[in-house]
Amino acid sequence: MKGIRRLAQQLDISIGTVSRALNGRSDVSEETRRRVIEAAAAMGYAPNQAGRSLRQGNTNAVGFMIELGSDAGSNNDNFFLGVFDGVQSALARHHLDLVVLPCATDEDPTQYVQRMIARHLVDAMIISATHRKDTRIDVLQAARLPFITLGRSATEGEHPWIDLDFAGVARRAVDRLAAAGHRRIAVAVPSNDINLGFVFLDSYKSALTANGLPFDPELVFRVPSSEQGGYQLGHDICAMGDRPSAVVLNYELLALGLYRRLGESGLTPGRDLAVIGFREGPASRFLAPTLTCFRLSLRELGIALGEALLASMPAYAEIYPQGIVRRIWPMELVAGESDRA
Q1: Which pTM does this prediction carry?
Q2: Which listed CATH number (3.40.630.30, 3.40.50.720, 3.40.50.2300, 3.30.70.20) goes with 61-164+297-329?
Q3: How many whole angstroms separate alpha carbon 185 and alpha carbon 247?
Q4: What is the pLDDT of residues 104-125, one digit of tens each?
Q5: What's the rounded Cα separation, in Å, for the pair 341 and 338?
Q6: Which helix or strand (DSSP H or E) is residue 185 part of?
Q7: Which residues is 124 bridged to in the sheet?
């Protein structure tokens, strides 16, 4: 208590007020919180988080689970690093830490969640790569552990989630290609039961109907969400007798493999096959011709994810009176040269 007592004496406020300010409590004014934090930093004082956690029965940590073997998690570290940055930014306001929980390829994700809960490693969780029916959600709800999902699911229950606008991407891509005169528009969807694939495919079908185009199941390609999946997609398209004139992708790295396979066959994106990618990222920026795709701020997404999770945690609900957040995250179309065919 020596450090906190010195802070209180220096600022001429009570020890309780200093403690509440350092813990991010809502009953302390922003001006007082700022004075306490600045004085603590000048003094070099850091609260004993381990002792505080033992007293309060919590860990002051939030777990972010990623499945190393899932299509959405194993091939694009840049995506999660950007999201992690935003989540940690939101948590740091309240002296909470983000802990990455990697579930191995050969482990059952639901059993992994059960183990994390049993060990009391974190006070709340974020889970990603949600499946159509995701039993992890059932387990977390039964345990009454605050959580949020990055992605929707058909699993029942009142829980918060934020999902990228997969439906909007598929609809806008098909509308753009149809307006350019394309009639045979293919789509790539994940080869597993991740929910985004169902959302993407349903929106693709609806967009075809809205544009007066028939749905052809042969133009639906189920491939892994990876560079290799994109290469397989290119191989399958090149092998068709009646090739599509355009394709819509559901994952960033698919474009890399697709471009390579088309090049091996003497075909050029934007000339022989119109391509609309999913997300603009570091890899896609160096493709030639430039990729028409969609843009979003990963850091802003992470901040929103962190704030929505805090809103579901009793200790922070008054600070973030959002209730149960269910939000579709918008994505901005970035026109390139890949869909000019």
Answers
A1: 0.81
A2: 3.40.50.2300
A3: 5
A4: 988 999 999 999 999 999 999 9
A5: 8
A6: strand 185-190
A7: 62
